[in-house]
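Exercise: predict the fold of this chain.
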Amino acid sequence: MCAWNLWRGWIILQLKGSRPAGPGERDRIKAMIKGISFLRPAGTAAEYDRLAAFFSALGFTPGSGWNEELSRGASFLAPLGNLEIVEGEMPLSTDVLIEVTQLDAVREVAITWFRAQGEEPAGQISAATETDWKSRMFTVEPVAGKVFAFWEWTDPLKGKPVAVEGDLSAEGMRFAIVAARWNAVITDRLLDGALDALLRSGAARRHIEIVRVPGAWEVPAAARTIAERVPAFGGPGAVDAIITLGCLIRGETAHYEAIYNEVARGIGQSQQETGIPHSFGVLTCETLEQALNRAGVKAGNKGFEAAVAAIEMVSLRRKLLDDNFAGEGA
């Protein structure tokens, strides 16, 4: 967390020299560092109030600040901060650069703030322009002589780790689908949607096992049995993912709540304890109409979506467990 402070007065930030530290001492000193604060003096009380109002309007998290007899301070916090030392010509006319993720939106907030003060900011806010370091930037001068630069990378992945994501090819993967028979008018549609997603994505029919259980209550037990099964048991062997399908519709008693809580807990527990991805396609609806809509009538087919999630999780799991893949996105 980096802190930037306004202070009516002057403070000097000193970097004190010392003897070189050994490896163990460097680690100890590094663990002691918590943050850094940059203090800027406000010339008058009016400037102080104006700057504090400006940064508050932009959404900065307020720090503790202080208000004492000889001075007062307004602190504003940002998630990350850098102290950069420059040799030679400064690249900008300001030494305070604030990185943002939506530059144009921030600029609009700044313009709105000036207009709320009864001012037109034409000469106080620059246009957002491209820089020679693959970014866009604008400067703002809320108080005469106090210039701040806001900027964002033009490359959205700049400075961020590349995300590891699963692919949507089911070729060579083995799946089990556990589907409840209760409310079959719904669950049959969910099953059709799941099969459609798997086959469209390259799964072989022989690698898809379908298990029907009486109702949603029995889904977790069947899923857990499949997840723990190994080829030595005489079955077709372990699967890469399990797709759970069912439908619970609220009635006039508390039976609905008792069932869906345990179904969700059981499926989640099976996934966590076995490590086999379980996708959740059990509908919990208020009415039959809601369930039909989620089984392909109006709001998509949740069985299809559950199968797609299972494919992606199998792919992601393989990548995360692949020693050759680890670290490629860093």
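Check your answer against the key: The CA atoms of residues 166 and 316 lie 4 Å apart.
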